[in-house]
Amino acid sequence: MRAAPKILLFMLIIPFSFFVVSHLIPLFYGVYLSFTNREGQFIGLGNYIRLIDDYRFWGSIRFTFLYAIASALLNTFLGLLIGVFISSLKRGQGILKATFLIPWIIPMAIWGLEFRIIFSRDFGLLNYFLLSLGLIKEPIAWLGEAIPAKLSIILVAVYRYVWYSALLFLVSCQNIPRDLYEAAEIDGATSFNMFLHITLPLLRRTMLFVGSMIFLGALQAFDLIYALTYGGPGYATHTAALYIFRRSLHYGEFEYGTAVSTVWALIIFCIVGTSFALLWKLAERR
Amino acid sequence: MVHEISPLKKKKISRREALSTAAKVGIGVVVSGVVAGVAGYLAGSATVAPKTIVSTVERTKTVTRTVTATTTAMTVTTYPAKTAIAGELNIYTPAWGYEGTDEAVKLFQKEYPNVKVNVIRGPSTWDEHVTRTTVWMREKYSGVDVLYQDDVFTTDGAAAGAWEKLDDYVPKSVVNDFTDLTRHFIELHGGIYRIPWGQGGSCLYYRKDIFEEEGQTVPKTWDELVEVGKILTADLDGDGKIDRYGYVTQGTPGELYNTYNEFLHQAGGDEWKLAPGGVPDPKAKEALQFLVDLEFKHKIMPPGITSVGYTESRAMLKEGKAAMLRDWGSTGRRAVEWGMADKIRPALFPAGDAGHWGVGHEWGWVVNKYGKNKDIAIEFVIFCLRPEVQKILAYWYQLPALKSLYKDKEYMESLQKKNVANTLAEELAKWWFPRKLPPGHSTEYHEVIGRELTPALTGEISVDEALIRTQKAIDPLLPKK
Fold first, then answer.
1. Counting C-beta atoms within 10 Å of the first and last residue's C-beta, which end of chain B has fewer, N or C?
2. How far apart, in Å, do the first and last CA atoms of chain B sit?
3. Which among A101, A137, A229 has CB closest to B25?
């Protein structure tokens, strides 16, 4: 093998230096901070031991997983249905594709604020419509109780991301060779059979990709929840990222906050590693 | 994987197709912009826009200064310009301090023409203000010299050594002139760390027109609150749904702390002793049970109170969807701005066993110990202690922090015209208590109480459990004996 020209080495050093300064140094400094207290004294595993008893942290982990799993499943399932339906349309696909991008363009914080107004018990549009249609008798405090608040957040997130996953499924559907459907049609297969035996198996990898991406993205959820509920009522809708933010930047406990984020980073690292190993295996099997 | 799902790249796109797609995306962007704009407008309308103040100050010994917000003119004394002092001054204020800051800075610059003042206009939400102040304090940020802060951050900053102690700079005569509430805070902080804009606090607001229509009088006790609240909670159009609630408060975490703390003091409890040793204190229990009962048993408060913040609760009072509201003095000013000064009136809180207590609080200037221009900063905050400047600052707050200003009848009348809460100033001030914010942990402390009590108000856990959990959460934050 030929040795790389020196110029290439220099070209690598510059971005790598930036990476070291912007990522690696803060990362190691953060880990170091997690072993100290507010006064900067070394306290060993003190912050990590405190974490074991911190039920608010574990509560935030539970909600993060609930949110991530629900988002991934709903987005994948609904995105698949919408994508397949749109791909079956003879006309109007172009305009629909453009329309699907609209929710994607709106910043998450604005999205959250919009829905905070929509979900308001006494002034919100949602209760107004539900009451007008006679579907509920009394207005619902969507963001005022734990279960409705959790449900509201998941629905808002799905409502935002489902169009993106639908777009990915639509593109994948268009990539399936038409002759497979024509052959099946000649053999007398119904539309449902074709969906079940042709579309679904060939979209398997897209499903996995969409599900993984949404799941991993949802593990980092912050802005939507911050804008919509501030993590409330109580601690009911705190995600891990929001809890880290609250501890570090809100209460000024950078040291404990970095301990929380180190543990959370390790958890995510394990999940990402497993996900990619799974994806790799599936890709190889094909 | 990405290649598999991106076959469009391989496809040759005609010019027409490209133009058509660009047009569609363009439409998408415009529509989303409109949607985002409307959302932004709706979100923005929840905050009070700064008013335009026309200020005419001349370089004479005594001048008349006109403030367009009211019809009252104020007299301001000016002094010879101090040109020897030169430099820069950086002042930070969140949105609710813009007007008062601008006024104080204008006056300061008349006298200190060689000082360049930069006003750092902060956020319009408490949460963002908290984040910014916390980071600055922790990082010993030097880019700001004077900050407009409340009790929470004055306490924490003083404990952290982030603010300059001002005892040596404030004349004894001025210290003696401070109101009782201001003196309480000085004691709590362990010295003078803040130059107050004024003193203020919470009270009950009620819709006088609704009370008159229903032939009711303002409740003076907890029992009367329930009794009157039940009468005023009504289905007005006969569709089986409640259109008006008797009482509303704010139930979001920081505010739930204040709401509960008021009931707790009215019952005679102590906010540091909610469930000492894991046993709920009877007074603490009585107060929380009463608050929970207002929603679940008596049903005079709207369900889901834990998601009701300032915007919703104030809108409910304004639109007649609630007949009574617990709120700060600033809502008395809003009542005037809404043209509802005759309909929205203040009252003492209904009394529990221990009285009509409401939270007394103050905002004011603190000097950053690590600021680059500390000397000029001290010069500025001491300048703001002058009675004529205090008059203006209190005008933008609620009531003066100097006792001597209460003797100026004309001025006090002007404050009443600006803020309906001030029509009851003397009585309210008697019942204001300073919160027991633990030095160094105030931010977390007050939010934790609100968040830990919330499950009792959503019916997830009992009152006893909530108090025990809350005590467990605040114990590490309280000063060690």
1. C
2. 62
3. A101
